[in-house]
Amino acid sequence: MLYIQLITLRWQKDVRDPVHAAARKAVRFRLLPQEMPEEDAVLIHSVMLRQNQAGIACTGETVRTYGAEILSAEPLRKPPYPARLQITEADGAYRVAYCGKESDGLYSEKMRILPGGYGRIVYNQRGAYDYTGIWYYDLTVCNFVCAPYCEYRPKLFFRKEPDSLFEDLRYLRYC
Questions:
Q1: 8 A C-beta contact, residue 140 and residue 8
Q2: In the sheet that 93-98 helps form, which strands lie side by side, from edge to edge?
Q3: pLDDT at 77
Q4: What is the Cα–Cα distance from 46 to 65, expressed in whole angstroms?
Q5: Whole-prediction pTM
Q6: CA 147/CA 117 separation, integer angstroms
Q7: In terms of C-beta distances under 8 Å and separation of at least 24 residues, what long-range contacts does 85-92 make, across chains too?
Q8: Cα separation of 141 and 71, whole Å?
Q9: Are 88 and 79 in contact (CB under 8 A)?
Q10: Which of 49, 124, 163, 166 is positioned for an S-S bond with 110, CB 3.0–4.6 A?
Q11: What is the pLDDT along the chain (175 residues), one digit of tens a residue?
Q12: Closest C-alpha among 137, 141, 153 to residue 4
């Protein structure tokens, strides 16, 4: 089973200082829910965080399981993970590809998640709210673990260093 954790941390201009940046950098994983999910091919844990002067707070969290059909190169519908990622299954491993700009569609393989393996992709972007024009910034952390269903536990992502790590933090891309 593939466990995916998607953490999106959003902030605005008033917390771009080094103190708040250090707090953002520390966000790498979150606890999974205590209750066991349904057994299926893929579990996706999505967490939305917001940072302001008071700190970082969770504004939304969902856990869903999906069948193997979301792992095809051409999924039947939009996959439930960011468009910058493409995840496929081959030979008992999961291939994770990344696209720097969503609009160009040029994916390159960044890691293979083998059984028992742990990978992480971290990237940032910026955008503007349509209704106000105010800029916001996002930091997205995508954790991947390939493990049997029986190994589910809330601290599944709490290994300190992933086997594979890809960071696209040099450029602050537009959404």
A1: yes
A2: 85-90, 93-98, 108-113
A3: 57
A4: 11
A5: 0.89
A6: 8
A7: 85/121, 85/142, 87/2, 87/4, 89/2
A8: 19
A9: no
A10: 166
A11: 999 999 999 999 899 899 999 999 999 999 998 888 888 889 999 999 999 999 999 999 999 988 888 887 665 556 788 888 889 988 889 999 998 876 677 888 999 999 999 999 999 988 888 899 889 999 999 999 999 999 999 999 987 789 999 998 876 655 4
A12: 141
The DSSP letter of residue 82 is: -
What are the tokens at 119? 């990978």
Tokens, residue 66? 């999906």
Instruction: Read off the tokens for 144.
Output: 């991947």
